[in-house]
């Protein structure tokens, strides 16, 4: 199964799981007239949004290259993970606001067996979705899976502390919910920023990491025919990169032999580095009398 099919399953299961939670929370919230549970149902609606973004982003990213998108549609993963990260930031701010409000006004949680049962069902569902996403991540590295996994984990932790708060309300301890909520909101905000920055960097064409660059240079320098590396540019196309190289070869070489060397370098780099999708090699002539180019 390829990475797109794996990510598709994560998105679909997320949608179905969150729809299930939305329904039971809304029904119990309306029956028990619990504003907290109705608000939690709204949070599940936001989770459905994140799972739908995963499914749509993955579907677009799986499309092959065409005449309008020469390097494919891989960046769709990062566009939609950016949207998920923004939704996480909004959720974190909402939790922070509610938590501070709860502490200031000393809000008390009314104990209800129905609320407790729904919380337990939510935790079980979210743990299951989180573990499935985590297992899928081991099969393929996809930022959409990471975003979904973090979303499930955050919900699981938030609901776990809500459950604890409901139980503590039986012994008239009400402050835990607000204090823990502040800590969780900060953590979710931090996680959202990390996903946002990773997506932003790819969308802004950030270069491949320096360690991989050094390994590419080492790979090229093993060819005795290469007199120097004039330039190297890397362009992210999603989770992979296109590498554009300009190498210096002996100016007396004929066109056939110089391109033969360039093709060997191209195939070697493409086969050696999993994160590189395509290599484009340009050849410039090297002359001893010319000022020596930087040889990395």
Would you give an account of this structure?
The protein is mainly α. It has two domains: 3-203, Up-down Bundle (Alpha-lytic protease prodomain-like), CATH 1.20.1510; 210-286, 2-Layer Sandwich (Alpha-Beta Plaits), CATH 3.30.70.1350. The protein contains eight helices and three strands, in the order H-H-H-H-H-H-H-E-E-H-E. It has helices at 3-32, 35-61, 76-104, 113-139, 143-168, 176-203, 210-221, 255-272; strands at residues 226-236, 241-250, 276-286. The chain has a three-stranded mixed β-sheet, with helices on one face. Helix 3 (76-104) packs parallel to helix 5 (143-168), helix 4 packs antiparallel against helix 5 and helix 5 (143-168) packs antiparallel against helix 6. The two termini are 40 Å apart. Residues 290-296 have low confidence and may be disordered.
Quick tags:
single chain; 296 residues; mainly alpha; Alpha-lytic protease prodomain-like; Alpha-Beta Plaits; 2 domains; 3-stranded mixed sheet; 3 strands; 67% helix; 11% strand; disordered C terminus
Termini Cα gap = 40 Å
Low-confidence parts, pLDDT < 50 over ≥5 residues?
Answer: 290-296
Q: Please, what is the average pLDDT?
A: 85
* Beta-strand proportion: 5-15%
- State the CATH topology of the largest domain: Alpha-lytic protease prodomain-like
CATH architecture designation of the largest domain: Up-down Bundle
CATH class of the largest domain: Mainly Alpha
- How many distinct folded domains? 2
Tally of DSSP β-strands: 3
Q: What sort of overall outline do the alpha carbons produce when their principal axes are compared? A: elongated
Count of DSSP H/I helices: 8
Largest sheet: 3 strands, mixed
* Helix content range: 55-70%
Oligomer: single chain
Structural class: mainly alpha
């Amino acid at each position: 199964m390829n990475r797109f099919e794996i990510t598709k399953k994560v998105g679909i299961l997320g949608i179905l799981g969150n729809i299930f939670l939305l329904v039971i929370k809304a029904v119990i919230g309306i029956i028990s007239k619990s504003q907290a549970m109705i608000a939690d149902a709204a949070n599940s609606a936001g989770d459905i949004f994140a799972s739908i973004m995963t499914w749509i982003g993955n579907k677009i990213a799986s499309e092959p290259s065409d005449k309008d998108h020469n390097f494919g549609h891989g960046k769709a993963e990062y566009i939609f993970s950016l949207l998920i990260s923004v939704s996480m930031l909004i959720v974190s701010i909402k939790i922070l606001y509610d938590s501070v409000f709860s502490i200031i006004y000393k809000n008390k949680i009314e104990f209800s067996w129905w609320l407790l049962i729904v919380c337990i069902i939510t935790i079980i569902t979210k743990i299951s979705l989180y573990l499935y996403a985590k297992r899928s991540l081991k099969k393929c590295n996809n930022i959409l899976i990471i975003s979904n996994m973090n979303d499930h984990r955050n919900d699981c932790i938030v609901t776990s502390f809500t459950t604890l708060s409901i139980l503590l309300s039986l012994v008239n301890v009400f402050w835990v919910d607000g204090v823990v909520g502040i800590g969780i909101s900060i953590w979710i905000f931090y996680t959202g920023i990390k996903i946002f920055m990773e997506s932003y960097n790819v969308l802004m064409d950030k270069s491949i990491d320096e360690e991989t660059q050094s390994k590419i240079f080492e790979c090229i320098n093993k060819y005795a025919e290469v007199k120097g590396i004039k330039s190297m540019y890397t362009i992210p196309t999603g989770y992979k990169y296109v590498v554009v190289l300009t190498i210096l070869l002996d100016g007396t070489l004929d066109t056939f032999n110089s391109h033969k060397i360039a093709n060997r370098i191209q195939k070697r780099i493409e086969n050696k580095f999993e994160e590189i999708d395509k290599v484009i090699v340009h050849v410039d002539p090297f002359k001893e009398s010319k000022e020596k180019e930087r040889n990395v």
